[in-house]
What does this fold into?
Amino acid sequence: MRRVGARGLLAAGVLAGGIRWLACGLSSDLRVIYAAQLLHGVTVAGLGMGAALYVDTVVPERLRSTGQGLNAMAGAGLGAIVSNLAAGWLMDHVSTDAPFVIAGIGALVLASMIPVILPAPQRLEEGLLTS
It folds into this structure.
């Protein structure tokens, strides 16, 4: 865990999701699609554990439950609503493969940007957390 860290877990989850979505959007071979589905577990574990660990590391102790609540709300609530709306629009106006291809490309770009957009977490000293 120390070697990979929260950002590494997040990057692995986003990267696995991007590869999976691209494989599903670009291939009609069921062997490729079935094999790509194995990446779903890596995606869910990386995003779920990585996000929770990152929030736990960067948010002061007295605000951790609020940080975790916002993390869950943004991912499961707002993220689901926006992605369903976007996917539905893309399927109606572009093609049924478009949401997978666009999400895959977006996820690969996001994975490459994680070191830039998420600062390396540094735990504050316990004395600083109460001030």
The CA atoms of residues 60 and 128 lie 9 Å apart. The chain has six helices and no strands. The two ends are 29 Å apart (CA to CA).
